[in-house]
Amino acid sequence: MGVPIIGCPCPVCQSSDPRDKRLRTSILLETQGKTIVIDTGPDFRQQMLRHDVRTLDAVVFTHEHKDHLAGLDEVRAYNFLNEMVMPVYATPRVQQAIRREFAYIFEEPKYPGIPQIELVSFGNAPFDVQGVEFLPVEVFHHQLQVFGFRVGDFVYITDANRIEEEERRKIRGCKVLVLNALRREKHISHFTLNEALDVVRDLRPEKAYFTHISHQMGLHEEVQGELPGNVFIGFDGLVVTQSENESESEKDSESENESEKENESEN
Ligand SMILES: [Zn+2]
Ligand SMILES: [Zn+2]
Fold it and tell me: Which residues surround ligand 1, an ion (CB under 5 A)?
């Protein structure tokens, strides 16, 4: 739902700390000369504007929930700006949702000005996104299969509350892990703060950043103060940079060169 939540009087929603303002979760990855967005939520347009992203080479989806999908129509700007059809990588199930929720994109004859996308399938095996190797990591969001991704030494996982051992092996040895942590109280489909910390203790990345944070988590500053030194609460516009040879970056809809950022939020 983003933070602040419409009409919510709580101290987090009323906070003046910019780190307590959270658009819906997404990242922008800049690596190997490519700019790739993972998920286009309802705030995609605003995120691209805020970070002045002028080139976008591809979109990759983790899953089809509206807070990750709703902004897809806005790729029209890049069809026009970059004079290209946008490659959109999604599993067959997520593609079905895209065809259902954006049916007009697939109608013939095409209405002028609608988004131009090309759906590309992936499953649980490494795949290539415009020359960048993505290793999918299967996670579960209650019963729903969701994919996280490892690109070099960077791993991005959102909307999970279970990761099996076989998939954890794909994450071990990474330098940066971005992981969802919704709030402190138990939730049916998201890791809590403690559950996310357990995953970090098990997987031992050099650094971990939490994303998809609810207003129920508390104030950024207070929660950050409770965490181990290599674990950070993400915030909109955060840029995480990795060195050349591992080239990555990520983040929330935007980026600057080689960086990543993280962004967050939602229900
Ligand atoms: Zn979800
Ligand atoms: Zn979500």
Answer: 65, 159
Q: Which ligand is nearest to the CA of 265?
A: 2
8 Å CB contact between 178 and 156: yes
Q: What is the pLDDT of residues 160-172, one digit of tens each?
A: 999 999 999 999 9
Q: Is residue 261 in a domain?
A: no
What share of the chain has pLDDT > 70, as a percent?
A: 91
Please give the pLDDT value at position 245.
Answer: 57
Interatomic CA distance for residues 244 and 242, integer angstroms: 7
Residues with CB under 5 A from ligand 2 (ion): 67, 159, 266
Give phi and psi for 48, each to the nearest 5.
Answer: -65, -40
> Cα of 150 to ligand 1 centre, how many Å?
19
Count the Cβ atoms, other than its own, within 10 Å of residue 94.
24
pTM (predicted TM-score): 0.92
Q: How many domains does the chain have?
A: 1
What number is the average pLDDT over the span 19-30? 98
CA 158 to centroid of ligand 2, rounded, Å: 7
| DSSP β-ladder status, 86-90 and 58-60 | parallel
Residues pairing with 208 in the sheet: 177, 231
CATH number at residue 126: 3.60.15.10
Ligand closest to 142 (CA) is 1
